[in-house]
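Try this one yourself first.
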């Protein structure tokens, strides 16, 4: 007769199979949670990038307009109505700058040296938006640029095309010369 001693005790095949099945179910659930959290993290990180880019561009535009003068709506072959504004920097009133939103690519451009005689402006290295970020009006009736007697309002929606994220941003700029005149 074969005698089993205490050192022969162990797990049965059924116990090992149940343990493997429970471990597989637990690991599958943990992997799903991990991938969901990773996607959520990347979504939030991209949204943060879009907001930071929009805030940086809005602040750059506001500073240019704050120190400028002689503001006008600009007509540009690549821009829709109220999607282009020209102004003179304070240091050199003969020069003109223009901000415009290209109606095809929906990207914002800042072009120095603009004159009203220019028939077409060529978007150069002054584009300030990444390729997958577009600018549109907040609503159909809200112009992107609005010039009042003493201020300029800039309002637009930034859309990140790969994740379809939207971010509305608006600011009102009062030129420095308005404070100096008073």
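Now uncover the answer:
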């Amino acid at each position: 007769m074969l005698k089993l001693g205490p050192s022969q005790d162990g797990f049965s095949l059924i116990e090992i199979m149940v343990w493997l099945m429970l471990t597989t179910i637990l690991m599958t659930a943990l992997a799903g949670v991990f991938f969901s959290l990773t996607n959520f993290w990347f979504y939030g990180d991209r949204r943060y990038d879009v907001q930071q880019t929009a805030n940086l561009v809005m602040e750059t535009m506001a500073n240019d307009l704050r120190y400028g003068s002689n503001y006008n709506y600009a007509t540009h072959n690549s821009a829709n109505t109220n999607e282009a504004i020209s102004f003179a920097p304070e240091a050199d009133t003969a020069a003109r700058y223009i901000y415009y939103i290209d109606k095809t690519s929906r990207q914002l451009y800042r072009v120095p040296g603009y004159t009203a005689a220019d028939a077409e402006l060529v978007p150069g290295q002054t584009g300030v938006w990444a390729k997958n970020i577009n600018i549109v009006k907040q609503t159909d009736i809200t112009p992107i640029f609005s010039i009042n007697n003493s201020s300029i309002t800039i309002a637009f929606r930034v859309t990140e095309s790969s994740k379809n994220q939207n971010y509305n941003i608006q600011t009102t700029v009062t030129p420095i010369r308005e404070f100096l005149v008073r």
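Discussion: The longest helix spans residues 13-66. The two ends are 113 Å apart (CA to CA).
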